[in-house]
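Margin note from the TA: students keep mixing up input and output lines. Inputs are the sequences; the output is the structure of the whole complex. Example:
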Amino acid sequence: MNLLLPLPIIIPMLAGTAALLAYRSRMIQRWISVIGSGALLASGIWLIVEVERNGIRAAQIGNWPAPYGITLVADLLSATMVTLTGIIGLAVAVYALATTSAAHETVGHHQLYQFLLMGVCGAFLTGDLFNLYVWFEVMLMASFVLLALGGERGQMEGAIKYVTINLMASAIFLAALGLLYGLAGTLNMADLANKFSNGLPEEQAGLVTTLAIMFLVAFGIKAAIFPLFFWLPASYHTPPVAVSAVFAGLLTKVGVYAIIRVFTLLFIQEPGYTHTLILILAGATMLTGVLGAVTQKEFRRVLSFHIISQIGYMIMGLGLYTPLALAGSIFYITHHIIVKSNLFLVSGVVQRLKGTLELKKLGGLYQSLPGLAMIFLVPALSLAGLPPLSGFFAKLSLVQAGLSQGQYVIVSISLLVSLLTLFSMMKLWNETFWKDQAKEYENAQQPVNPGEWRTMFAPIAGLAALTILIGLSASPLFELALRAGEQLMDPTAYIRAVMEMPR
Amino acid sequence: METILAFVIGALYAAGIYMMLRRSLVKLLIGLGLLSHAANLLIFTVAKLVRANSPVIAAGEQTLSTPHADPLPQALILTAIVISFGVTAFALALAYRAYKSVGTDDLNEMKGTDV
């Protein structure tokens, strides 16, 4: 059995358990959280190197051969996602040291955080649909508690909406799993893909498309695509910033990953219907998200609506369904996870200094913190897609793929949305950093001691540097994304890796 | 048998959705519980109900005696039940906490308390 594959699941599990055992000492928990996340990043990088060299890797847990046992599979997409989880995991774990209150730490912030990372990595690596459901639940359970931790009045409404809508999505997912099992007699993704590609009887083919839409709804709720996104801006602005940063970076992307996985591996019989539908939803998601952001007047709510509009770009690549477009999607996810988490981290610094995130009460931060103002511009402009930052290349490849397919409508929507994103990011920058503080809201900035300041600043600067680095080294990274896209377009390698692997 | 179960599942879905549309927080959670029961029964029904042997290899035999029931759906349902048990316990605790800190269990009145 290949031991490398379970490693990104085992590391956070051990870290979380160790932190539980060390419940008496906050200091030890903090160290475990940072070391565990660092080890997760290392295992992610190892995984991506291994998959890059040797092709798709699979492991049968418990040595039961596929399709009977539980399979873990890592192709380039999975390995990339695990590495990104490690990057954000480490950055936010460090950031949380300075921003998480002692009260939150004593009731289990660090433990839950590690279990959240475990659920996310499990969802990225599993090769079995029911196992994916279980990892979703692991991730959701940790996220529920993190969202409601502290139990303050303002958190409750968002938490209830988030819990309800996610349980609803899980029920739909479970029903779809049951129907799929009744149809095919297996839930192993490679085995299912094999059966579907060999052709189904006439009367079952229609049911497959129905199931495809059920999966699209279930994952679409988690990914917050149009018209299923309402829970996201209702809940992401309520928890502590470290929590909402990791939610913003990772959780919706698990939904996007699941959509990409099932719609490149399983439901590829009728791309004229399913993938066109995805393309239409992508356009609607982009537009509604960005228009929602334009009307908002609170820092984190603006950012939350931008998550939605960016999800549209990610599934636009899937809707176009060519290797170049999928590569664009993967590059976009990579860029977005880093940039979006960073924007939330900056919002946390602003909140720490000013005690509020209402835009009308903010202002004048450029005077006291020109460095932060400049660093904010890196992820903000990257989100809007200005060269030479990472977002530019992500959008460029999607636009190229769209043009080569002759999909001019979606391309023009994506360009319009970029423009509105730029407008909205400039609004944030102007309101927070550039304009003078309004007289009636003037209050002294809250003091931050230097150690705390460094702990908050290091992850922000690190992620901003990574954004610039991705932009400057776009070519090799895009090569990698293109190969990941080609892997997705040709599922035979995936099926072979799982079904024919030596025991 | 399938026909009866189909109606039961349909009724559970309908009742679950009806409960979720009510304004009370507790009824919302009952609705969610009904939805997961309906999904579990759906798995059970779709995976074929057969009168057959249990899927255990009898002593002295090398293979399963046919026909035999498929054990996997039951394993899936069992896992799903355990998960929904944990989630429901959490959701009830959350509902209680929300009632305590917001002061209402009416979802309409809870609207806009997140600022």
